[in-house]
Specification:
- It is built from 23 helices and 14 strands.
- By secondary structure, it is of the alpha/beta class.
- It folds into five domains: about 90 residues, Signal recognition particle alu RNA binding heterodimer, srp9/1; about 30 residues; about 170 residues, P-loop containing nucleotide triphosphate hydrolases (Rossmann fold), CATH 3.40.50; about 70 residues, Orthogonal Bundle (Helicase, Ruva Protein, domain 3), CATH 1.10.8; about 200 residues, Methane Monooxygenase Hydroxylase, Chain G, domain 1.
- Helix 14 packs across helix 15 and helix 20 crosses helix 21.
- Bound molecules: adenosine-5'-diphosphate, magnesium ion (MG) and zinc ion (ZN).
- The site of magnesium ion has 4 residues, from helix 9.
């Protein structure tokens, strides 16, 4: 490319030289007229913009000032810029100077004038294309789908690679069976589902499952991510959809997989201020294709999303993604299976108890667990161990739960003390309250960006329901850290912000959504979009009166205030224990479950709560 540019520049240079040969003398028009009148002009060619000709050049004169007397020497060529001078022709005739008209610019100039910009443009374009890499190449073949085609052996994933989501697998078995032998179903006239939507939180293995389905069914797998459709040019996404379905139908039976469907499938017109024609066109095309293809041919569309609630309802209608498979967070057994699966890839010491790891990781999804195993392997390598031990697995969990430990961050002794009491407060309140989940670990080693310490509680088994008493206890535990600070230092700190936020949110939900306030009763107010998975905070327009709003505030505030008092009273009643825990933390930085049991067992007076602090339901009777 630079060669071409050099060539062009060279050409230009030569051309320039050619046309402006030095023997041609530029003359001002006035000088030309003067020379004409003096009979020094021999002949001229009149062009549109220039007049060229030959004249008789006087001796050593400056070229723009012709001398009065004609000490003529030799003829020379001149050029002058043409001025609007209607009398010129008359003068020429009168003086009998031969003149001709002339078309400006020879063929060469014309060609160059045309060609040069074109060459330059093309050069620049391809230069830019190279810079931008694939992006610009997309321009030249846009519309062609970038769907990657995997034949069955290429997905290389089978159901054995997906663990802990047995229900989803069971539902997908039917799809696999259909893809293997479509005639078995169609012979009976049954309608095969066209679209199956995998719904679940991020990292639960939806993408993995889709690939496993293709692998199990031994069919080609066409996959595109929702964001691939949404391109910079209107119409490209739609063209891709068309192309994708065409390819799939040509190779049926096949699976078309659209990952992150929400990127294209967002409800249309959700934001009137920001119309997205491209996305809408793509979505419309997708709907049209789904209606258009014949399911008996054996193409099944799988899609995955973690935000089903924002999908356009049209996508979920019969004949489209009418079947939904929930890929939920794994339970204890599921977590164990996922851990076992991923642990196969690394070297573990024999004393590893994956059951304990599974028990420590409620709420984690498949990708988190895969991450735990991988992180543990990396840690073991860093510590120069021959195999991964329980220590690395524990640290890996801590890292993933709360960000990597920051042993290097030095905390001022005063801060450390405060954090110790804060965490001891959480832990003690949790241990005192009958329904709170048992404390698994308390640490004042800073984790991640914000957490200065944390108290991990662990449910004995996975929880699906909470009673009002349990929620109130939970709020009390959240407020325990702040209560301890207030009790010991007569002062509170910014460290409790996150706790307060969580406690307030929970209290508010109890009032507005869970029907757990006396004043508002079972009437629920919050109509949140049913996000099963993400804390999707779109405040619905307020559909209740100002009086109700005030009541909500009052009630929620009441709950938090009461539980704060309660935490304070609980800690007051066991201040000695609080001191013990905090001092232990200051020395050892960590208390694990068994140590905590020992510490608490060695202390008398622990274990009974003042009867007025047992709160089963919230009512306005104040705790004093
Ligand atoms: P999603 O698409 O639901 O966000 P992925 O399928 O992309 O999740 O999962 C990411 C990775 O996490 C997978 O490649 C796999 O290593 C691991 N993983 C997730 N879920 C599981 C599972 N159920 N069994 C085994 N591995 C899993
Ligand atoms: Mg995915
Ligand atoms: Zn706290």
């Amino acid at each position: 490319m630079p060669l071409l540019i050099l060539l062009v520049i060279g050409l230009l240079f030569v051309g320039q030289k050619w046309f402006s040969s030095p023997s041609v003398q530029p003359l001002p028009y006035s000088a030309f007229k003067a020379a004409l009148r003096q009979g020094q002009i021999q002949k001229i060619q009149i062009g549109k913009a220039r007049i060229r000709g030959t004249h008789l050049i006087p001796g050593e004169q400056a070229p723009d000032r012709l001398p009065d007397d004609a000490g003529l020497k030799r003829p020379g060529r001149f050029v002058t810029i043409r001025v609007d001078d209607p009398g010129l022709v008359h003068e020429l005739e009168a003086l009998q100077v031969p003149y001709t008209g002339q078309r400006e610019g020879g063929w060469f100039t014309t060609l160059l004038g045309w060609l040069l910009p074109v060459i330059l443009m093309v050069g620049l374009w391809s230069l830019m294309a190279r810079r931008m890499g694939g992006a610009a190449r997309g321009l030249t073949n846009f519309g062609k789908s970038r769907a990657r085609i995997y034949a069955e052996q290429e997905t290389g994933v089978s159901f054995a690679d997906v663990a802990g989501v047995d229900e989803a697998k069971a539902e997908l078995l039917e799809i696999i069976d259909f893809l293997r032998q479509p005639q078995k179903y169609t012979a009976l006239g049954g309608r095969i589902p066209k679209g199956v939507l995998l719904v679940g939180p991020p990292g639960t293995g939806k993408t993995l499952l889709a690939r496993a389905v293709a692998g199990e069914a031994c069919v080609p797998f066409f996959s595109l991510s929702g964001s691939d459709f949404v391109e910079m040019f209107v119409g490209v996404g739609a063209a891709r959809v068309r192309d994708l379905f065409k390819q799939a139908q040509d190779r049926a039976p096949a699976i078309v997989f659209i990952d992150e469907l929400d990127a294209v499938g967002k409800a249309r017109g959700i934001n009137p201020m920001q119309p997205n024609d491209e996305r809408e066109q793509t979505l419309n095309q997708l709907l049209a294709e789904m209606d258009g293809f014949d399911p008996r041919k054996g193409v099944i569309v799988l899609a995955a999303t973690n935000r089903p609630e924002i999908l356009d309802p049209a996508l979920l209608r019969a004949g489209r993604f009418d079947r939904q498979v929930v890929v939920d967070r794994p339970d204890l057994q599921g977590r164990l299976h996922i851990l076992q699966l991923h642990a196969k890839a690394i070297r573990l010491t024999s004393e590893i108890d994956l059951n304990a790891i599974a028990a420590r990781t409620p709420g984690m999804v498949g990708s988190d667990l895969a991450n735990v195993i991988n992180e543990a392997a990396l840690l073991a390598a860093r510590y120069g161990k021959a195999a991964v031990t329980m220590d690395e697995l524990d640290e890996a969990i801590d890292r993933i739960l709360a960000g990597p430990q920051k042993k290097s961050r030095v905390m001022a002794p005063k801060e450390k003390q405060r954090v110790a009491y804060h965490e001891a407060g959480h832990a003690l309140v949790a241990e005192m309250l009958p329904t709170a989940d048992p404390v698994r670990k308390v640490t004042i080693i800073p984790h991640g960006v914000a957490a200065l310490g944390y108290t991990q509680q662990l449910p004995a088994q996975d929880r699906y329901l909470y009673t009002q008493e349990e929620l109130l206890d939970r709020i009390t535990v959240l407020l325990g850290g702040r209560a301890a600070e207030a009790l010991i230092f007569q002062d509170i700190s910014t460290g409790a912000q996150d706790d307060l936020q969580k406690a307030s949110d929970l209290a508010r939900r109890m009032v507005t959504a869970l029907g757990m306030s006396e004043q508002l009763g079972p009437y629920t107010i919050e109509h949140e979009p049913q996000s099963m998975f993400l804390p999707h905070r779109t405040r619905a327009p307020q559909t209740y009166s100002e009086a109700t709003a005030q009541a909500i505030d009052r009630e929620a505030q009441g709950i938090v205030e009461h539980m704060a008092r309660r935490a304070h009273r609980l800690l007051e009643a066991s201040q000695g224990t609080l001191e013990t825990l905090a001092q232990y933390l200051l020395v050892h930085e960590v208390i694990d479950q068994s140590t905590l049991a020992l510490l608490l067992a060695g202390l008398c007076g622990h274990g009974h709560i003042p009867s007025d602090l047992v709160v089963r339901r919230f009512n306005a009777a104040p705790i004093t």
